[in-house]
Amino acid sequence: MSVDLDQTPRSLLVCDRSSFLNEKNRISSQVEQLHFNYKVSLLLPECSSAPSHLDAVFNSFNSFYLIRNMPIYELLDKHFLKTAVYQGSVYGVSYRTRIDEDNCVALMPNGHLSLSLDKDSFELLGVEGKPSRFNHRTTCRYVVCVDLTDSSMAPGGRGYQRLLTGLRSRLQLKTDFLLSHHPGGGASLQDLLSRYDWSEHRPDVSSHTLTDLSCPALQSCDLQSCDPHSLLEWIGAVDAHISCENSSSSFLSSLVCPEPKTTVSRALSVSVCGLLLPQDVHRLIQQIRYYLEQPRLESWVSLTVHGFVDSPVSWRGNEHGVLRGGENFYSLLIFHDQTYQLHLATGAHDTCPP
Amino acid sequence: MSVFMDLNLSFTADKKLLQSVVETAAHLGFSTVAINYVFEPTAKKKQDIPSPTPINELIDQLPVVQGRSRPIRVLNRLTIVMSDSSHFRPNAAEYRCFDLLAVQPTTDKLFHAACMTYDVDIICISVTEKLPFFFKRAPVNGAVDRGVVFEVSYSAAIRDSTMRRYTIANAVSLMDTCKGKNVILSSAAEKPLELRGPYDITNLGLLFGLSDGDAKEAVSSTCRSVVLHAETRRTASGIISTMRSCSESSCQQEAPPAAADSEAPAAKRAKHQLPDD
């Protein structure tokens, strides 16, 4: 009659190691494929203030727009499709909707619209969809995924009409929506924005200087020098300002810095929050590479990019869910000799990262 | 998964306390709660079944659930603590004003009868004392087939350490028999401090022997199927229901008919026996 408490929910961790100079590295596609990024956190050891070129990159991140109570059929509007979806890429995800409770919507840059609906909404909508991969005993969540660039979904087509009628009259789905466009920015979205209550937001940048931080001694050539799980725990602890001292008098945290470790006298932790585009993350990575080319005291920089917990999709448009935690993030360790270690991690209800 | 629900908040006459409990539940992320009126008939004197106070009298402004944009939904529930088979009168008129009907049997025969024949939604498992009877597969499977769920409350475990042992022991023995199906976890909270968040209750379910997915369902999908089961219990095959029109001066506020619940044109509703289909 005893209960097995050793089992923890499944989590997936993919570790990759390569060099930026190697033309076969997949880093650009791995960064591109996580469409909806919520937070980017950077850890620069032996640095007290952000260098000007990194500051410039943070300030040049694209702004994003929040539309309150937007009916989802607006994403099928002919004018919106012509000016925004067919030209460039639109990134849109519903806001303040929980993936395991409510209906969530995501519009991916390749024109795929993904609706994650609960059973009642799916049956009301009446459009073809599949049961979610993460249903347990009963099917209570369904996913409807349509390709808006496909010929069958062209305005006036049968599939388009059916979805439009469904969203307009049968299931009047309205959520708050975060929207961003690359490369057009707000101009291509103006028509849609002007009809509803919208606000423009800049990504929120905050930085924090840490003193006397114990860091693991990371060598670029050896992936096994530091166990990935303990390294990721340490990076997360630093980002969340959790002490890794593990002193006997404190019961709050027993996290420790992985061995072998050194102490750096100061370090800078920067985090940016908002709807961040993969293109901006790319530019940031290039600027970090440039930063590391100069001779530095410490030879590495860590960059962690978190995806939205409540987004219906994670990498490559694969379905994402929340069991007890919906983390989907990757952590990139860049070294001065242009090599990198990449750790991609997801929680239980997710598919394997690329 | 569906929204998180806590289907057992104890009723108190103190309006402020009840309001703060509902506000805490909304803050923690529960989208639906049920206020539980416990009725324990004794042989000595005849008691009347309490009639529920309408929600708008109890709580002025329903708080918005944290992280979503809709206000919390509050239901009424009646729990009858049975020590004799005459305590539960099937099809009594007083039951119609409650959204959910629950029964807490105290003997083996009553448990068997409740699982197989009684027209209830929830069977409560006592957590404050050692189980007076053992669970047998036959009545438990019969209840699962009918769509009746078993409820384990956890706030007694928060209050007292002896109760904690009883709660865990009784819950583990229930899970052994029912294999984690048709179980809901709820607080029987009297104060706001006795409430816990839905993900914490999911973790508590692991202690009771539920698997990860089962424990999460115990707070969400199974609760949804109980609420649907209760709605269809008051209708004929889940399609038609009647409502008394207010003609005399003394008319109670009847619960709205289930068929008119959704604004959408007529949609198929779940069947009576298999509400989670």
UniProtKB/TrEMBL annotation, chain A:
It comes from the Eukaryota. One of its GO terms (biological process) is tRNA 5'-leader removal. GO terms for cellular component: multimeric ribonuclease P complex; ribonuclease MRP complex. It holds the Pfam family Ribonuc_P_40. InterPro entries: RNase_P_Rpp40 (IPR013893). One of its GO terms (molecular function) is ribonuclease P activity. This is Ribonuclease P/MRP 40 subunit. It comes from Sparus aurata.
Automatic annotation (TrEMBL), chain B:
Component of nuclear RNase P and RNase MRP ribonucleoproteins. RNase P consists of a catalytic RNA moiety and about 10 protein subunits; POP1, POP4, POP5, POP7, RPP14, RPP21, RPP25, RPP30, RPP38 and RPP40. Within the RNase P complex, POP1, POP7 and RPP25 form the 'finger' subcomplex, POP5, RPP14, RPP40 and homodimeric RPP30 form the 'palm' subcomplex, and RPP21, POP4 and RPP38 form the 'wrist' subcomplex. All subunits of the RNase P complex interact with the catalytic RNA. Several subunits of RNase P are also part of the RNase MRP complex. The gene is rpp30. The keyword Phosphoprotein applies. Residues 268-277 have a biased composition (Basic residues). This is Ribonuclease P protein subunit p30. It is found in: Nucleus, Nucleolus. Residues 255-267 have a biased composition (Low complexity). One of its GO terms (molecular function) is RNA binding. It holds the Pfam family RNase_P_p30. Belongs to the eukaryotic/archaeal RNase P protein component 3 family. SUPFAM superfamilies: PHP domain-like (SSF89550). One of its GO terms (cellular component) is nucleolar ribonuclease P complex. Transmembrane segments: none annotated. Residues 250-277 are annotated as: Disordered. It comes from the Eukaryota. GO terms for biological process: rRNA processing; translation; tRNA processing. Keywords: Acetylation, Nucleus, Phosphoprotein, rRNA processing, tRNA processing. Component of ribonuclease P, a ribonucleoprotein complex that generates mature tRNA molecules by cleaving their 5'-ends. Also a component of the MRP ribonuclease complex, which cleaves pre-rRNA sequences.
